[in-house]
Amino acid sequence: MTGRLVSSVGLATPVSLFPDRTYEAIVFDWDGTAVTSREANAEPVRQRVEALCRAGVDVVVVSGTHLGNIDGQLNARPQGPGRLFLCLNRGSQVALVDANGPRFVWERHASSDEDGALDRAATLTVKGLRAHGLTSKIVSQRLNRRKIDIIPEPPWENPPKAQINELLKAVTARLSSHGLAGLDSAVAVAFAAAVEAGLDDPRITTDAKHLEIGLTDKSDSLHYVLSDLGHRGIGPGLVLIVGDELGSLGGVRGSDAAMLIAESARTTVISVGVEPEGVPEAVIHLPGGPEIFLSLLDNQIARRAVRRVPSIDLDPSWMLAWSKTEPKLERVRESLFTVSNGRIGTRGYREEDGATTNPMVIASGIYENRDGMEGYLIGPRWGDLEIENTEDPDTWVLDLHTGVLMRTRASSLDTRIDFRSIRFASLTHPGTMALRAEGGPDELRAGLSLITPKNDRVTHGTFGHVYWASCESSQGGGITAAANTTTHTTTTTRLIQRIAHFHADPQIIPDPEIVSDHLTNDMALGFDSLLTQHRQAWANRWADAEVSIANDPEAELAVRFALFHLMSNVADQGSVGVGARGLSGSAYAGHVFWDAEVFILPFLAATHAPAAEAMLNYRLDRLETALNNAATNGYLGARFPWESARTGEDVTPRSARDAHGKEVAILTGQAEEHIVSDIAWATWHTAAWTGDYDFLHGPGRSLLIETARYWASRVERDGDGSAHLRGVIGPDEYHELVDDNAFTNVMAKWNLRQAARLVEDIIARNEPVEVAPVEITSWREVADALVDGYDPETGIYEQFKDFASLEPLIINELASPPVAADILLGHDRVAGSQVIKQADVLMLHHLVPEACEPGSLRPNLDYYGPRTAHGSSLSPAIHAGLLARAGQANEALEYFRLACRIDLDDLTETTAGGLHMACLGGIWQALAYGFVGLWPDPDGLTINPHLPDAWQNVSITVVFRGTRVTIKVEADDIAITPFGNIEIIFKGQTAITVRPPGMHFTRTAKGWAKTTS
Amino acid sequence: MKIIAAIDDSPVAQPVLDTAIVIGELLGLGVEAVHVTNQGGQSAYGAARAAGLPMRKLTGNPIDALADALDDPDVSIGVIGARGHTGGPHPAGHATLAMAQRTGTPLVIVPPELCRPSSQRINRLLVPLDGTPNTAAAIREVVSGFSDAGVEVIALHVFTRETVPRFIDQTQHGLDAWAEEFTARQELGYWPKLVTRAGSPGQAVISLAIAEDADLIVIGWSQNLSPGRAQVVSEVLAQTCVPVLLVPVSTQHVVDSNNLSTPARA
Hints:
Number of helices of chain A: 27
Largest sheet of chain B: 10 strands, mixed
Radius of gyration of chain B: 18 Å
Shape of chain B: elongated
Strand content of chain B: 15-25%
Distance between the termini of chain A: 42 Å
Shape of chain A: globular
Structural class of chain B: alpha/beta
Low-confidence stretches of chain B: 251-266
Oligomer: heterodimer
Mean pLDDT of chain A: 94
Distance between the termini of chain B: 16 Å
Number of helices of chain B: 8
Radius of gyration of chain A: 33 Å
Structural class of chain A: alpha+beta
Low-confidence stretches of chain A: 1-13
Largest interface: A-B, 47 and 30 residues
Strand content of chain A: 15-25%
């Protein structure tokens, strides 16, 4: 109980004594902390509380007393946007106060049994004390508690808090004279009485004069408050707790110490009380009572008024931190720390110029022709500042929970103040970006609000205090940004705030005036409100997608990193093509591959359906082009391109230099046709998760019907009636122009059959459909005739015709995977061998397990595993998921860890060019579809977990057909917590309806059995 | 700052002098011929005089004398013949290799059979990069001097079993992305064209020098020719017909074209 004694100071407290943080919520005890007594004038508190609420801060009063006492004394009527909570009756009630006054939003209702037990406990306590010869008195019967006066003597009838030392001495002396060692002995009497009275979890508190026996205490208030704040993206690190009784009193924990619950670990806790026995280690002691408390509030109000840089909650399980100083890794950091909102991506570049940086702002779907190829148009930069270079190292933290990037540079010189900045891409206002920075006036200047690429298609200008710039694409369209920068300079500090607004349009250059108008709206809303809404929106997204992995914090953080970028790189409205590197870099020219539908989309389908449907809209909007493409090649239906950008035409380069410097033809554009059924699969899979059959039966059906038509016309028929797809490339691109690639063929079969089934469903609903029955029949006939290379004797699918006759190289004997085997061995050697780049046949087991021969997963894993070089970043996660499904969870974990580190450790040496979005999507699939064994089946959500030994449990939240559900899996136990009724299927068992609040299941010899609700 | 051209009485003296002059003109450095002699030296003197260069005679043990001259702080680059006689590819001679291992000054080794006229301007440099920071740091300044003088720089990285990338997702994009970042990480201060090869680094250097019509090969090296070390240098010196500039990785030699002495060749 030593704590930190800072100083005994009054109103003139130097602000340097206060924590250098801006808090989003301030929680404080009332009597003794905010006011000296119940009779004190609380007007100064009211003024500050309302000012804090006006500034957007949530204020929480925690008190043992009732509403009338607190509201009557405080009488605050805040107008928002910050909220005022009154947590009353020692944890039993919560009231929300606004301009219209207070209203209760939560209350702990005691049962009649509990009320009876409280009465008995109070009586037994008085009796117990009397057994020691001590007179005490039950003085009130408050909500959920009973209060006993243990010093009912006139001099101590209503002692002020300032006399706590004297009171404590008097009480201790009184107790001692009756054989009780001290307050703790009296508390022990009360506790024993409460247990005897039948209370399961009695809460005994004391303010020295009274003993209180209750059902709740201030810990319940904190549980409520921190939970509420957490749902708004306000973590404990952004919360300030102030009390006056945080240390012990007469050996008994002070009443405010109940606010120090486990969840409040990162809060800042200050005691302004006398604290005769000191304060706990983590508590800051500023013994000045209500006076210093008011100074503390003034300090927070002042920080907001001058626009100090807000803080973030430094929760290690949610923060990606970086303090590496190697310049060569700076571009890697820029990719990892990209902040996006699905529309605009800003790499995590440092604000000032640097030779080793690659600062960049990218807009989704905006391309230009450059160097003979369609690639991302680079937009105006909005995050540049002029910062004096120092040798002091930077620390970067990306708060994955709220999408806020913070940079700090602690100065090594006393004469220089620390530099700090935060930035975010608003999730609620998709065109809006915001930044704040602070530093010494000599070291920090605002510079230009927008920095444009150097080319002749840039225009810029001003509207009053708004600076705008447009970057025009050579294809038409472009990116327009408007930005406003404000600076506040004191003798010691310069504070800079910048808000920028972006519009991007592939057809026309957005009008700067319109963009500026939007910026004006943003500015009217203000940085703080934008940040509050942004945090709330992120908290909402995570609520539907949360993942935790017990006792493996590294894997847990890696998964959260992956999910953060999957969420932030995909918008949830309109038509969204997701490039291979998302919005985090310009590598791969922003081209859209199968990565989008097969790797990225499933996570979104399972957690945020609008984003998945926006991705499908991208293909729907380019269906016409795909139809034309098929027709041009003499086929029916839709032939989607291997690489797609603005128009949906194939933009795959036709040639490239290989690693040997040889000009080689790139054949994927003409032959990697499985993209056609990949898109159909994504459409079906999305509906399987969302249950949105309006989309599937409506606009989405074209993506199944036209792709089926393509395959029906694309196949070649042999004299024996068999159907073939010749001259294709499967996912294993080491082998080009092969015949009857199993993946392509089986996916085509699946595509044809699912389209037939879909059309029949539509007909059954008496809805019009543009497919004749004879065409449905032909699709099924073609599907049946398509060869798939499956050998029933071995259980193995031959990857393509004559694969088995290739040189049987085992990659492990040549090099240690992952390895780019085509570079190691050369194109021709690899093409002539059985070394494969990535999962090919096994992708069937991953995507369409129901279309694979039963029992074929393990033999194909055994056969293709040793032949797989994993030379693609897409490969390790898929193998992890499949190995887990096959029951080889420990081996799966090795691949999972590899996938998790691909970007975080820059294993490709190309993360500088952008994140490997497909790998990030694969990480979620490995966890969800592999380890937890989720699958959206027609009759319900299937669960079939296989956890590695190293994991104690995994918890994952998804949204299945509109119902959020959290599934917590342990080796032999599953807890399912749905927010509505949900059908669950344990593999091999019939579906069971799980209703809120949920059910537990235990593994038995016959499968999973329900244990409790 | 100057270049020293170490010549003897052999026919190699002329290409050595030519190479030194060409480099001196490019980098704005003076050139001085040196000759170690205890007797004779008329041919060397004649060659220097014909080239318009002053010649300093050194005496004593040739290796010691030349090494001392090269390590003079005023000397930026040395130029020396691979060996004293011509006629087909030959490994560099003992004295040349000993000099190369000893001096801390970048040293151009002129092969006995050049595949281009020795007096031809240097238009293109071939710079093998193994990806290590030491190599990049060693050659950074000297190559920067050539780049500033308008010489095209072609960087070469050769993938070996040990250095082959783990992942290349799509050849048509992945190699470009890899190459861009690899080049950036060398922190050369300029942006060379990067060519990749796989297999034997030595052979890749030799063949690419011909294919790309390189006029000079610049290699950062550890100055250690013990068995198993500097295999690329040994292989290249033995087989190339292009002058090779060896830059010790430990040297901090700076070629500063903005701080020039007057070229000795008036």
